[in-house]
C-alpha cells in the first residue's frame, strides 16, 4: 500500500513501549501523546496575524486544549488534555505556555525523535502545497510536507537472492557471520564441482564437533571463513572412529605380559 501524499508521517520508535511516559499513562494520555507528535511542526515556520509576525521551531506548535481533544479522538476530554500536558511536562517530555495566538507547546528533544525525517526534508521539494491558515488555532501544523519517503536513509537494501541449499547450510552453521560474502564463496565452490549436499554435511559435522568439544564461540570459525579458507575440506567425510582406549590399553598390557613370560602372543 502506498501512503505517499496522504498527509505525511512521523517516526515512532518501539523503545517508547519501555518508557514510563507510555507504560504509566492512561489510554487517553497515550492518544494525546501520539496526537501531539503528529501535530508538531517538523520545520521552522513563520506567519503573520493581526499585523504581528510569529515563528515556531521544529517540534513546536501553537494550538488549543479544545483542538488537541478533538484531534485525539472520541473519549478524550479537555480535562484529559490538561492533565496530560501537566504530567508530560513533569516527565520532561514537553513544555508549554500561553501566547496571544494560543498555547505554545514544545516537544523536548524533538531532534532525537524525528532527526532522520528532518534530514530527508532538507532537500527542496519540487511541488509546494499552499494551505490557508486559520487565524487562531493550529496555525503551524505543517508536517504534511513529510512525504519524501524515498529519501529516508533508513530504507533497507535488498538482500541477495539466497538459494535454498545455502539457506539450509547457513541454518545449521554455528557462527553465522558474513552471510552475503559466504554466499558468494558458496557459488564459486559450486562452480568448482562441490555438491551442495556435501557442503551442507561438512557444516553439520563442524557444528557437531563444536558442540561435542564445547568450543567457545570466539574460537568457532565464522561462516564466511569456513568456506573462504576451505576449512570445510576437513569435514567432507565422516571421521574414522577412534579405537576404544580401554581395549587399546588392555592389548598393550597383554603384549607386555606375553613378552615377560616368554610367550609369543601370535600363537595364543
Question: What does this 3D model show about the protein?
Answer:
The chain is mainly α. The protein folds into two domains: 14-151, Winged helix-like DNA-binding domain superfamily/Winged helix DNA-binding domain (Arc Repressor Mutant, subunit A), CATH 1.10.10; 164-235, no CATH class. The protein contains ten helices and five strands; from the N terminus they run ααβββααββαααααα. The strands form two sheets. The protein has a three-stranded antiparallel beta sheet. A hairpin with a 2-residue loop joins β4 and β5. The model is unreliable at 1-5, 126-141 and 143-157 (pLDDT under 50).
The SSE string, one letter per element, is HHEEEHHEEHHHHHH
Number of domains: 2
The proportion of strand residues reads 5-15%
According to CATH, what is the topology of the largest domain? Arc Repressor Mutant, subunit A
How is the largest sheet built, in terms of strand order? 3-5-4
The profile of the biggest β sheet is: 3 strands, antiparallel
Please mark out the parts with pLDDT under 50 across 5 or more consecutive residues, or reply none.
Answer: 1-5, 126-141, 143-157
- Look at the structure and name the CATH superfamily of the largest domain: Winged helix-like DNA-binding domain superfamily/Winged helix DNA-binding domain
Q: What distance lies between the first and last C-alpha atoms, to the nearest angstrom?
A: 86 Å
CATH architecture of the largest domain: Orthogonal Bundle
Q: Specify the number of helices.
A: 10
Please bin the fraction of helical residues: 40-55%
Supply the helix-strand structural class. mainly alpha
Q: Please give the CATH class of the largest domain.
A: Mainly Alpha
Kindly state the number of beta strands.
5
Cα-based radius of gyration, to the nearest Å = 34 Å
Shape: elongated
Quote the average pLDDT: 77
